[in-house]
Amino acid sequence: MDPGTSSKFLYSLATSLDLFSFWTILLMAVGLKAAAGKKLTFGGAVFAVVLPWAVYVLGKSAWAGFMS
């Protein structure tokens, strides 16, 4: 994406979606599942990690779009 011609919202959103972000999310979910034991499923751990990350990314992207 060209940062000069594309939407600031979409550019900010696209820069947040990369392999390292997904790897970090996966590692955090595995660690949360290991720490919680049998009280939390892996799907629940992924949800507990992805939801705050998604809120942060959407907020950051909205702010970038608002400030352009």
Task: List strands and helices in order, with pairings.
Blueprint lengths: L7 H9 L2 H18 L5 H26 L1
Helix pairs in contact: 1-3, 2-3
Structural class: mainly alpha
Biggest beta sheet attributes: none
- Measure the end-to-end span: 16 Å
Number of strands: 0
Query: Can you tell me the overall shape?
Result: elongated
Rg value: 15 Å
Order of helices and strands: HHH
Mean pLDDT across all residues, rounded? Answer: 93
Strand content: under 5%
What features would you describe in this structure?
The chain is elongated, with a radius of gyration of 15 Å. With 68 residues, it is mainly α. The chain contains 3 helices and no strands. Helix content is 78%, strand content 0%. The protein starts with 7 loop residues before the first helix and ends with a helix.
Could you give a short description of this structure?
With 68 residues, this protein is an all-alpha fold.
Write a concise keyword list for the protein shown above.
single chain, 78% helix, elongated, 68 residues
